[in-house]
Amino acid sequence: xxxxxxxxxxxxxxxxxxxxxxxxxxxxxxxxxxxxxxxxxxxxxxxxxxxxxxxxxxxxxxxxxxxxxxxxxxxxxxxxxxxxxxxxxxxxxxxxxxxxxxxxxxxxxxxxxxxxxxxxxxxxxxxxxxxxxxxxxxxxxxxxxxxxxxxxxxxxxxxxxxxxxxxxxxxxxxxxxxxxxxxxxxxxxxxxxxxxxxxxxxxxxxxxxxxxxxxxxxxxxxxxxxxxxxxxxxxxxxxxxxxxxxxxxxxxxxxxxxxxxxxxxxxxxxxxxxxxxxxxxxxxxxxxxxxxxxxxxxxxxxxxxxxxxxxxxxxxxxxxxxxxxxxxxxxxxxxxxxxxxxxxxxxxxxxxxxxx
Length: 356
Ligand code: UD1
Fold this sequence. Notes:
This protein has helices at residues 14-29, 50-55, 72-89, 102-113, 133-144, 153-161, 174-188, 210-213, 216-228, 239-247, 263-271, 281-289, 304-308, 319-326, 344-354, and strands spanning 5-11, 33-39, 63-64, 94-98, 117-121, 147-150, 168-170, 203-206, 233-236, 255-258, 276-278, 294-296, 312-314.
């Protein structure tokens, strides 16, 4: 192939910006790609969006569809409508979609209906919990994409079981690429990206999944566990969680609240914490890559490798289980290299070129 491959990336929510950062950086290094970035506007606050583009040096989106928040159906429908119009204007060779958000699903659907080729980055993950909107987004996106980039061997096994192996490539995890790159930045400038006013010693937590935030029983159990821990819990608060904490009249005890943190500040917070308590998928991996134990505040995880390695304990929202897990010692064995070798974006670029 001796012409430039025209790529459209579609992103909309925080974890997707991190994945896009790794892939777009690799594409910029090569001369084979022209890139266009469409932001659906699913996340729109500065701390939920712009800060990631600045931290990760991602070119500003070419267009922002400004879709914003809504119910699952209406948000996805508005994205689908706006994306169709946008993709018709600039028909690319490949549409790249990332992860498992409503922006991922809408982009894959809009593109395949226009007979554009779709590649799914971070494909074939399964939680086997169909109450999660993300699980539905994953199953549908994998089913209709032309090319699937699997981050782990477990994801490859899901592809095999579902008959998707023929167009699945093991790439490794682009979030591991990102950490490998930015870990060097943090080590070079250890005084940068500190959040001022933190307790001297702390646990780091995030809570944003509807299964936790929209269920007062689960949310109260999680905050009861935080109150029982021997050090304060630093909690950058997702806007939805902030609203529901007020709605349910929960008074967080032993908790140091922050606004949502940018990418590099968050990595600094992880590195300096005792351990991480979270219901985020991305943060489970970031903790693992940075050598911190994780307590997963969900009933299951897609990142089963981290659990097999004893660096992650899945506790659900059971207060005693959360406290017990947070107090566990660090595992003796280091983390394994289940997420590739930090060159997932390179594999993705090579594969796109070879298939075009
Ligand atoms: C989405 C993804 C989830 C991902 C998460 C990362 C789906 C189904 N879920 O969930 O997989 O882990 O992003 O954060 O796509 N809000 C703001 N400002 C913003 C964005 C959202 O205030 O910039 C508030 C709104 O009240 C909104 C709520 O957060 O209703 C939820 O936003 P939503 O777009 O549904 O996504 P997340 O819950 O963040």
